[in-house]
Amino acid sequence: MLSPNLILLYVEDPQESAAFYTRLLRCEPVAAFPNYVAYAFEGGLTFSLWSTSAANFLSSGTGHRMEVAFMVKDDAEVERLHAEWREAGVSIEQDLMTAVFGRTFVALDPDGHRLRVCTPDK
Fold it and tell me: What is the pTM (predicted TM-score) of this model?
């Protein structure tokens, strides 16, 4: 069975996005180059940022049709992060609400990628 181990977001400015994610994730990148930045997490997941202006970037795709989700332990943590991110100036696309799966909200990174915070499905 294949297990996904890399999330790669295409960004306009990897350094600006890296500053945003370093604050949001509270960790430093394990690799940082002008066109690529990577963060490593427990369990083998790597989260990376790739410049859309890199010489070898090629994509005909447009738009943001996915979310990076951060499942947290409980509703209180969802609400705490909502307040913390709003206070830090993170753009909130979908305000705090209760969905069929629990408390959630959606923020946006500098390139408009959707970042959902929620509790695990019950």
Answer: 0.86
